[in-house]
Amino acid sequence: MRARKLLLCAMTAAMTLAASAQSYDVDIQFTPSKNYKAWKKGEPVHIVRVCHETFLPSSGNSSMAVAKEVYNFYEEGSSTPHPVEGKFGDVMRCDSRDVQAVWDAAIMSNVLPMLGRKGYQNALRQELDDDAKDFIMRLNADGRRFIDPMLESYIYGVLAKVKPRQLIDGRTGDLNIQIVNDETPNAFTFANGTIVLTTGLLATLHTEDELAAILTREAAHYILDHSVANVNAAIRRQKRAEFWAALATTAVATGEAIASEKNEDYIPGLATLATSIISASVAESYLREQGIRYNNAQESEADNMALLILPAAGYDRDALVTALSRLQRLYKADRRKPAYFPTYNDVQLADRLSTLGTPYARTDTRYEKMISFAVCSAAMRMIQLGKFSQSLDMANQNIRNGVATADDYIVRANALLALNADTASVSDAIDALQMAKVRRPTGMDHYRPQVAALLRIGRTADALGVLADYKAALVESRRQLATLQGEHVWQATYSFINDETQWVEDMIVKLGPMNH
Questions:
Q1: What's the rounded Cα separation, in Å, for the pair 355 and 222?
Q2: Alpha-carbon distance 486 to 490, whole Å?
Q3: Smallest Cα–Cα separation from 18: which of 59, 46, 52, 51?
Q4: Which of 38, 56, 336, 441 qualifies as a FRET site for 319, CA 20 to 30 Å off?
Q5: What does DSSP assign to residue 171?
Q6: Radius of gyration, CA atoms only, the chain
Q7: Which of 151, 158, 147, 219 is nearest to 190 (CA)?
Q8: Is this prediction's pTM over 0.90?
């Protein structure tokens, strides 16, 4: 017995031989809601430092030894450590109103206790990180990523106002934005901090405050480590090997089924992971496996963080309920599955929104101008899906704000022709197509709808004139292309110049009104 005790003591001592430590300066005011450790109810506590120590098994220890994570808080003017415990957040109310301090307090209350119990789980986090990187790679390969450097820079600027500068649990505080070209309003965040936003979501919002609210909610899911917590819970219910094997099988199989249903000529095997999960119907299976399908308690935590962070960052607190209400109305109008609210029924969602504040009705013209390319992209996809009223509203928004490109006018014309039969609407469509030609003189996508519109009101001679112009333009394009056959370098250069010229022209249109 004595020998066994000595052995256990030796092993415990060995655990402390190899240790790493990190210390983070913080500035957080807490007020205990009841007596807790050395702190008295109602007496302010000022935490100025968080110290994290990792005690690793030294070489020669049993392979069953597990690293131990210890977190201590230090008060101002005191060297006495206070170890974090699971009930810390239930007792200590954060009184700070600084963005960094609010996030620090949330991590101390919600994340550190879990990390202390389970450690960093590096292998799990690496696996989830690899999955996120694979998603981005497939997104680029499938052409689903929406690229607008100006918009991305703008979103990063908003995100920088609401996110913490550092995470006091040792994880990276970097957050990565990926915009997906999809008309379905949705957003989700991978466990490595990759925030995915759809063009449909950006187009649904109408102020920078609302964008800040959505970004804060998504950042909260990452910062509060919700995905890893959910994966851990799933792994407890299912063996690890079965868990990861089911991931690819479920996502691809569901994608194949949906693709086959929509297209009887579909060839099995063409579906890719990135393409599949954008659809709300497939997202449920894939994102749940990634830990990204949050329970109602986690959604409420994200809401509460947004309500604290928004005013601290200078944004309207009511932007959260406004953004969520806009999404709710759009889902109900389309009678589609609410991808952003998968765990709520209509009654639960209404109850949730009623507690978050009062929606406002204002719009932010500067924000609408900044997202105009995303709005146009979403409108073009809605035209393809036959959602003519929504696409018309989006095109009109860009036209009203003076940032419409040729594509916006073409969307407007096609939507008008699909929705109306009266002469005035057809004339409006013809005018819009003329504006598209002005915006893009070398473009050709205005010819077909222009012919259709002229025929609609009996102007056959004019339609023939447009067809003659179209034929001449096609002949000239063919002549130019013929000179480039076999010259791969020139082909690439020609394509690059065309694309860049178009981007510059569109940017001039966008930036012109914003310069006043």
A1: 23
A2: 9
A3: 59
A4: 336
A5: S
A6: 28
A7: 219
A8: no
Pairwise CA distance, residues 169 & 260, whole Å: 46
Euclidean distance between CA atoms 193 and 432, whole angstroms: 42
Nearest to 291 by CA among 230, 236, 212, 338: 230
Q: Length of the chain in residues, anyone?
A: 516
CA 204/CA 79 separation, integer angstroms: 51
| Pairwise pLDDT comparison (252 vs 281), residue with the higher score | 252
422: number of Cβ within 10 Å: 10
The Cα angle at residue 398 between residues 393 and 401, in degrees rounded to 5 = 120
Question: How many beta carbons lie within 10 A of that of residue 428, not counting itself?
Answer: 17
CA atoms within 13 A on the CB side of 183: 20
Structural tokens at position 470: 């179209």
Q: Which two tokens stand for residue 494?
A: 């020609």
Interval 313-331: pLDDT, tens? 999 999 999 999 999 998 8
C-alpha 481 chain-centroid distance: 40
Q: Compute the CA torsion angle 371, 374, 375, 379 (nearest 10 deg).
A: 180
**Distance in angstroms (rounded) separating the CA atoms of residues 68 and 118:** 8
| pLDDT tens-digit series, residues 436-449 | 999 999 888 898 89
Residue labelled with tokens 């102020």: 207
